[in-house]
Write a structure and sequence with these properties.
356 residues, 9 helices, UDP-n-acetylglucosamine1-carboxyvinyl-transferase, Chain, four-stranded mixed β-sheet, alpha+beta, Dihydrodipicolinate Reductase, domain 2, 32% helix, 2 domains, globular, single chain
Length: 356
């Protein structure tokens, strides 16, 4: 059984999630110790318990330590990923409920389920737009198009919005068995050059709040981008949810790549400030010339490695999160990439182990 040090590097939940995904994909038992040692409340939170139970369900794994606060988890897969109809609820892992990120539970099982012999439908309930995690809109507008170029096919629908603290949002995913990419779809420059700008689209949302909040976010973001010479289409929306919330989510589409930026409001914060946070982040990325935003650089590591990509990736920033994620992968597979933080690039080496 491989042992992973959960206190390494950034020491957060990504160590657990990546370890679980790799254990399922490689059919390899793993023990994660000192889980989330770098956090204010260490050990498993509701989202992490749900990730572990979800990963166990799709491969009939033997699971020990899946409880709130646990600092040690063992995971032993007994089968290859199983196609099926799955439902996971983050609130079920914690008394009193939870707004833990539904998106991170989904990402834990998405790649493994593309190995299953048939399509799967996955429903995850929890927080759909919460801090420190990719929002539903980021997954749909950025993550899925990017991994789609690597022949990982999935579609998402937002059934209910979920904000902190109640959560109670719902995402449904259709995940298909992977068809290997054609050799000429990915070359050495594909992940180093983003091509010309095609469009900027977004949504500004007031959830169980007055409609003018969404309109103000949309107007402010549109103006900031226009002043920088960029045209954007940002739709203001007013929706319902169990907890009130507000946010803006912007997606940038280039010829071959996508990037995303968002901000979630907090009580007492002017709507214009929320819009400015997302817009400034978009502009900084646009001017950087990078292909992948800081979050995509982290989330694309597994898809790129298992499709046999060999070449450079240009990132807006090489975060500690990304470096920690690479370290976890290398505990399973050995050296897979070289990072140049000064030039903000990752050079991937082709590995023998590929997804079917």
């Amino acid at each position: 059984m491989l042992t992973i040090d959960g206190a390494y590097g950034e020491a957060g939940g990504q160590i657990l999630r990546t370890s679980l995904s790799l254990a399922v994909i490689l059919n390899r038992p793993v023990c994660i110790e000192k889980i989330r040692a770098g956090r204010k409340n260490p050990g498993l939170a509701a989202q992490h318990v749900t990730c572990a139970r979800a990963a166990a369900m799709i491969c009939d794994a033997e699971l020990q330590g899946d409880r709130i606060g646990s600092a040690r988890l063992t995971f032993e897969p007994r089968r290859q990923p199983i196609a099926g109809l799955y439902e996971f609820d983050v609130a079920a892992a914690r008394q009193g409920g939870s707004a833990g990120a539904a998106s991170l539970v989904l990402q834990t099982v998405l790649l493994p389920l593309t190995l299953a012999d048939g399509p799967s439908t996955v429903t995850v309930r929890g927080g759909t737009h919460v801090k420190w995690s990719p929002s539903f809109h980021y997954l749909r507008a950025v993550y899925l198009p990017l991994i789609g170029q690597l022949s990982f096919e999935a579609a998402l629908e937002l059934q209910a919005w979920g904000w902190y603290p109640a959560g109670e949002g719902e995402i449904t995913a259709e995940i298909w068995s992977r068809v290997p990419a054609k050799p000429n779809r990915i070359d050495d420059n594909h992940w180093f050059e983003r091509g010309a700008l095609r469009r900027i689209q977004g949504v500004a949302v007031a959830s169980s709040l007055p409609a003018h909040i969404a309109q103000r976010m949309s107007d402010r973001a549109t103006k900031i981008l226009e002043e920088a010479g960029l045209t954007a289409s940002i739709e203001p929306q007013r929706v319902r949810s169990a907890s009130p919330g507000a946010g803006i989510f912007l997606a940038v589409e280039f010829e071959t790549h996508w990037a995303g930026f968002g901000a979630i409001g907090r009580q007492g914060q002017p709507a214009e400030q929320v819009a400015e946070e997302a817009s400034r982040a978009l502009l900084a990325f646009f001017r950087s010339g990078a292909v992948l935003d800081v979050y995509a650089a982290d989330q694309l590591i597994l898809p790129l490695i298992f499709t046999g990509y060999a070449g450079l990736v240009s990132a807006e920033h090489i975060s500690r999160h990304t470096l920690t994620n690479l370290w976890v992968v290398e505990q399973f597979l050995g050296p897979v990439a070289k990072v140049d933080r000064s030039n903000k690039t990752i050079r991937f080496d082709r590995i023998q182990q590929k997804l079917a």
